[in-house]
Amino acid sequence: MRFVIVKDLSPETAKARTVKAVADVLKRVGKTEIFNFDTSLIEKLKKDDVVFNLAIGKRHDFLQGTISAIMEGLGNEFIGSPAYTHYICLDKFTTKSLLNSYSIPTPAGTLFDGRSFVSDIPEPPLIVKPVAEGSGIGVDSDSLCDSVEAAKKTAMEKFEKFKEPIMIEKYLNGTELTIGIIGFGSDLKVLPPLEIDFSNLPQGVEKFYSQMVKEKYASQTIYRCPAFLNEKVRNEVLDIAKKTFEITRARDYLRVDMRLDESQPYVIEVNSMPGLDPENSDIPKMVEAISRDYEWLIRYILRRAVRSLEVRG
Ligand SMILES: Nc1ncnc2c1ncn2[C@@H]1O[C@H](COP(=O)(O)OP(=O)(O)OP(=O)(O)O)[C@@H](O)[C@H]1O
Ligand SMILES: [Mg+2]
User: Fold this and answer.
1) pTM
2) Number of CB atoms found within 10 A of residue 29's CB
3) How confident is the model over 80-116, as pLDDT tens digits?
4) Pairwise CA distance, residues 201 & 278, whole Å
5) Residue ranges around ligand 1 (CB below 6 Å)
6) Contact, 162 vs 112, CB < 8 A?
7) What are 197-215's pLDDT values in tens digits?
8) Considering only CA atoms, which residue is closest to atom 29 of ligand 1?
9) Which of 8, 108, 111, 273 is most buried as measured by Cβ atoms within 10 A of its Cβ?
10) Which of 110, 205, 115, 118 lies closest to 151, judged by CA?
């Protein structure tokens, strides 16, 4: 058996750091190679290689799903979720529809397809965001709208800019949480909820995770893990996270973003390939809160594919 990390052709700093950190752990478990995702990948792969995908590709190419699909087609073992999960979760409106059909709460919302809205626009306040982006792309200060008219106008502008369907959702003003789940099948570990607190941001800066807040205000954003939640809300948050993992048929690791409205949790989006940057990503922060380290996390994620691996705790 050999591990193969698949990475983007030219990963940016945080991604390069993730590749190195994951590779360092894998090398302690077994032989490890790092390959770029390009046309030579399939020729270089051997039948018993276990692939760890760390390539997310560019906007709209849905590469993370495609790499899983290729591995499924080739019959190679791979770490992380199947193609089904990635394709569902990469589209926030599809995720919402799926979760709603299983009675998992998500904020009321609709989609602008460039011509019309597929259903009624909810009551303001509203948030307007592209349906299939990550890292806060398209979530800006103008995303928060206090009237239906403003939301329609913003949706049209964002459609022009991003050339993709735009979601309009009820803006939930409550606590922001993200929950990591690791494991597989019925053997899941739900990590302690991480609260992202925007109350310390300078006046005038939006109190949600816009692209600008992610990029410029990380040091003034408060990360609290475990989040302060009463037992009832906490149990509900954990239950929703676990059900979301099962409904989306995820494997090995997943992160579910939520917001509270009063004390009811709602799923905002599901990250099927959440960040594993040891310095900045959320899941490593949650693992720290249970007094485990990065090595433990990666080994835990490997457990399904490498059954013989010893992981304590
Ligand atoms: N319905 C909502 N109510 C309140 N805030 C919201 C809502 N939808 C999005 N947000 C805010 O916008 C942020 C970014 O939205 P979302 O998570 O959908 O985008 P993303 O760019 O895909 O994020 P990620 O980087 O986690 O992939 C959320 O973290 C949250 O702060
Ligand atoms: Mg998010």
Assistant:
1) 0.96
2) 18
3) 999 999 999 999 999 999 999 999 999 999 999 999 9
4) 24
5) 92, 107, 127, 129, 133-137, 139, 169-172, 176, 208-209, 257, 259, 268-269, 271
6) no
7) 999 999 999 999 999 999 9
8) 209
9) 273
10) 110
Chain mean position to CA 99: 15
Can you tell me which atom of ligand 1 is nearest the CA of 271? 27
Tokens of 223: 């990360």
The CA 283 to ligand 1 mean position distance, Å, reads: 17
CA distances in angstroms from 79 to 34, 38, 53, 74, 108, listed in the order given: 14, 19, 7, 14, 33
Q: How confident is the model at residue 9 (pLDDT cuts 50, 70, 90)?
A: confident
Q: Residue 133 CA: which ligand 1 atom is closest? A: 22
Atom number of ligand 1 nearest to Cα 257: 17
